[in-house]
Amino acid sequence: MMHACANTCRIKLKQHDVSRTIKLWSKVIVCVTTLAFIALYIVPAGSQQNFSLKKLPISRKESMNSLGLGNNPESRPLSSVLVRTSGTRSGQQAVKRTPYTRRNNMGPCLAKFGNVTIFIGFLKNGWEGKKYRVAQSSIQCYLKGVNYQLITVNLRKDVRTREICRKYKKYLFKRHCIAAEYLKDTDWMLVLDADTGVVNPNHCIEEWIDDRVDVILYERFFNSEISAGSFMVRNSEFGRDFLIKWADREFTLHEGWNGLDNGVLHLHVLDTLIPDAIQERKNCHDIWFNATSYETYLAVVSCVRQALGASRLWPGKLRFYSKAHGWVRDGFLTSNKWHDGDFMIHLWKGNNLTKDGRGPPFTEMPDLKSCGNGRNGWHWNETKHVDVEEIKADLARYEKTKGQMYPSFGKQVFFLTMPVIGQCYPDCERLT
């Protein structure tokens, strides 16, 4: 085909034959366009990448399926007319996550990613103190059946980090400094709030470890924040540095509604992942600095999320899980109902169980003397253990309602309401 097009393009046009000239020029244009298309998409010589051609979608249903949005389970995303079917670009291998089989029937959690440590910081009397006995009893029961290490640290009195983390005055930021120090003793660390408990012990932490990244976060359901309460970090230079720089943002707090470590986490993620987005970062920083209420603070969350786009994975750096897809979620979203895919629940505050069904879904506190042998020691309220479709329906209703009630400050389209190049021109891409 290429030879035929080239031969046609080389035909000498006769000036006296206008009709023929027009026809030949039409062929020339078609040939040039075809050659340009092939040159643009053809695999370079020496490459090991293979492509196949797919027809463009011809209906809305086919279009939705091609984007992976249809009901056809066999559908695959179609990013363009050309789809790579095999091979990789010269010398570059596709980044794939190491698979980890979901825990079955309370079996062992294989240490595929090395040692895993759970880190919990507290202020007063440890997990046996006020507010957290139910949540922490469930953690203790769970740990009897797995091979993870638990570190509980008094954030005010920890001897090991007293000098290293002395400069941090707010305990939420000091926690990140202390966690960075203890991270040196393990391979992966799961940091938990003290009010987070295990609802379903038939899971391993490794099910949520993504070894393509060093920091793993998750999105809270009710306000779309990237949560600061629980996260996973790999013992790497990037992981430790991420925690220290997060802690250092204590010294950037303003007097308004700053969101403390959760507020600056959004800016920290933004600055870490897209440092070259000069104007977008400035916009989000300006919104944060001028936030005076929870409603105006949510504009910061929306600004950062819009700047990051739909991506949730940045290989070698960070990933954050979508709403209700992480290892933990807030219990009130489903009235503390849970299904087999759930692992941990956040916001279990209290030392005792309640009988009104509004608290943790247990009929009795976990029996620590019996824990460690299968499901022994766990006393669930079975009316709270439901199938995934019921949870899905609850979450869908909550998502719709919360979206309608979301403050108008957070519903802005910031690339329309704020500068894109107006303040940084002509240097907006100097870091790209």
UniProtKB/TrEMBL annotation:
It comes from the Eukaryota. The chain crosses the membrane at residues 24-43. The keyword Signal does not apply. Keywords: Membrane, Transmembrane, Transmembrane helix. Pfam families: DUF273. The keyword Nucleotide-binding does not apply. This is Glyco_transf_64 domain-containing protein. The lineage of its organism: Eukaryota, Metazoa, Ecdysozoa, Nematoda, Chromadorea.
